[in-house]
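Lab manual, section 2.4: Encoding a predicted structure.

Procedure: take the sequence of the chain (148 residues), apply the prediction step described in section 2.3, and record the output as structure tokens. A sample record is shown.
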Amino acid sequence: TTSASPHGAGGAGMEGSACLQLLLQRCREAKDCAYCPYSRFPVGAALLTAGGEIFSGCNVENACYSLGVCAERTAIQKAISEGHTRFRAMAIASDMSDFITPCGACRQVMREFGTDWDLYLTKPDGTYIVKKLHELLPLSFGPEDLQK
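Recorded output:
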């Protein structure tokens, strides 16, 4: 993990901050660790916790395709295993010339931990767009729905 100074919870609060730059750097570094001999589609993710720590993850494929895991879920699982369950943002990097978004399974795993956190979708040239999780998974089902 890497600690970052907290600079506001929303995308607007992080724009141009050292925390955001570190988050973007860490997702690019994680991408370089991807194990993807079958798809040749490396992805890296970096997850910012509410406490300001950053957990990174990469995709890890398997010859039995269904046993692979995405970068986003790897980062979340690392954070959870260290006791973190509140998140502020995630940055995602690939080698694609366009922005990529998390798959449906990753969106649902993210949803377990709220809908109002920022996703920084990046391109290799350093540009990015910011989306809230609820924009990528509208009308979602979460833990609070089990209480109804």
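Check your result against the sample. The CA atoms of residues 108 and 137 lie 8 Å apart.
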